[in-house]
Amino acid sequence: MSVRQKIVLVFVVLGLFSMLFLIIGGENGLKDLSALRNQRDGILEKKARIQKENIRLYREIDRLKNDPAYIESVARKELGMIGKNEVILKTRDAGK
């Protein structure tokens, strides 16, 4: 192998190592790729949670539109309403 070929080989090897360094440590390298993958995974988890919540809300909306028994239970629970011909009895506490 001649001296000229050795010099060319050294420059090629240095070029390859430089490119490898840029791929691993440079901007948009493996470190950034890993961070972006973690960010993507977090976004996908959040998306799944939001989709589940949307399904729950759609079901509740449908029940509020179409289920009289559910509407009655919500009115009793959240608004403290009573039904027709019902009476509320309040008792005194025995300890007072």
How would the blueprint of this fold be written?
Elements: H1 3-25, H2 30-66, H3 68-79
Walk me through the structure.
This protein is mostly helical and 96 residues long. The protein has helices at 3-25, 30-66, 68-79. The protein has one domain (3-79). The protein starts with a helix and ends in a 17-residue tail after the last helix.
Q: How much strand?
A: under 5%
Order of helices and strands: HHH
Q: Report Rg.
A: 35 Å
Class based on secondary structure composition and strand pairing: mainly alpha
- Total domains, how many? 1
Average pLDDT number: 87
Catalogue the unreliable spans: none
Helical stretch count?
3
- Overall helicity: over 70%
Distance between the termini: 107 Å
How many beta strands in the DSSP annotation?
0
Shape: rod-shaped
Main sheet record: none
Features:
96 residues; mainly alpha; 3 helices; rod-shaped
Can you describe this structure in just a few lines?
The protein contains 3 helices and no strands. It has 96 residues and is mainly alpha-helical.
